Amino acid sequence: MVLLRRELGDVLREERQHQGRTLREVSSSAAVSLGYLSEVERGEKEASSELLGSICGALGMPLSEVLREVSTRVAITESLTAPVTLPVAAASVVASAA
Amino acid sequence: MVLLRRELGDVLREERQHQGRTLREVSSSAAVSLGYLSEVERGEKEASSELLGSICGALGMPLSEVLREVSTRVAITESLTAPVTLPVAAASVVASAA
Fold first, then answer.
1. ipTM rounded to 2 decimals
2. Is the CA virtual torsion A46, A47, A50, A52 positive or negative?
3. Residues B42-85: pLDDT tens digits?
4. B31/A contact by beta carbon, under 8 A
5. Count of A-B CB contacts under 8 Å
6. Which of A31, A47, A64, B29 has the greatest number of beta carbons closer than 10 A?
7. Has this prediction a pTM greater than 0.80?
């Protein structure tokens, strides 16, 4: 199962690192503890909606943008973990090409 | 502040109602308590990533799709609550039209 907190943590951490900022800076700006932010980034803790909003604010990234990015990543993971079904048409093409 | 759990709850409730299903049916299918699902739908409880995954599974709606819909709604709310700044060019047009 794709877990929201893992994908969310990845997006938040990558954005922070992209900005060249430390856990200490962002946690201070978001008024959350460094340990909490670290756990959220590692996908080990569910961020409450309020603290997620604070973290997004500290990163200067709208929540909608964070969620869109998370949605895109989750879609990729879903497509990788979905059972593969070969369409009949494609199978016929393969058969006739052989 | 836009709260993820409220927008998420709205999306999950509307999808369930769109399918014409009851809280009892979906909570049973997702193996979560009816009270929990009800609180999540009302935006009163943060859904854990695992239970959110179960609820999405019960609704037959990929998590990525739920998040994309939530992202769209959050973006609308953000645009409505953002401070309004009138661009200089637009202000000039208004001034010259007056």
1. 0.82
2. negative
3. 999 999 999 999 999 999 999 999 999 999 999 999 999 877 76
4. no
5. 74
6. A47
7. yes
